[in-house]
Design goal:
264 residues, 16 helices, mainly alpha
Length: 264
Amino acid sequence: LEAEIALAENDLGIAIPRAAAAVSFSPQSPSAHYVLGVAKFRAGDTALANSEWHTAVERDSNFIPARLALAQQEFAAGDAEAAEEEVVPAVREEPGNIRALVLYARTLAARHRFDPAEVIAHRAVAVTEANPEPHIVLGEIALQRDNTADALSEYEQAVIMAPGSQEAIEGLINVYRRGKVTREMLEHMEWLGQQPPHSATILEIVGRIYADRGWYDDAMRALKASLAAEPHRATAALALARVYTEQGSLSAAEDSALLIGDHT
């Protein structure tokens, strides 16, 4: 418990020795090995973390947190098959576990098993209406299937649910990069960024895309809105200065550049 509290406070100096002591005191405890694995992973010792998580699963094959930790690492390493082997028992044991369902869907998609991946992701959506991750996964699957319309819909839903989600925002960017971008699509994205709480990131992104296509009035509007939402956003100020420069408004460009200050 002391180790878990220390982990919650990101105090590895206390978490690691406390977790190691728990393992020494109770070597048969899967929880103790799991917590030590988490502490070691955060300290950058991936090999020892994986070893502790494997030990936790050996102590209890149904210990879900360790299985998911192993599956996540295997997926991150590019071994979707091994990740799937770890995550399937977790899904069977806890069919309502969002983390397990999302990871399972991603492993299936990575192996180009798109139909079952969509089924699992939709199951995750049914389990919770407040989590953007299933929609992000459905967006990823749609992009892999070159279905930009569905990808756009899913990523937009994710951004609405979690305006600050970088994963959802990056997904939106990928959709606009890969698909045929129309002014109507960008106007919709701009509208999305204007929904409370306003997303300075989305507004900056759409402003830059406007500018890339030479739609400078639209770009200025979106970039100004980004700065209104986040006045010290240096990247938006720089983008706006560039738009003013392209338009020949050098004094306005200088005024915008002054907002950048020490953030350049």
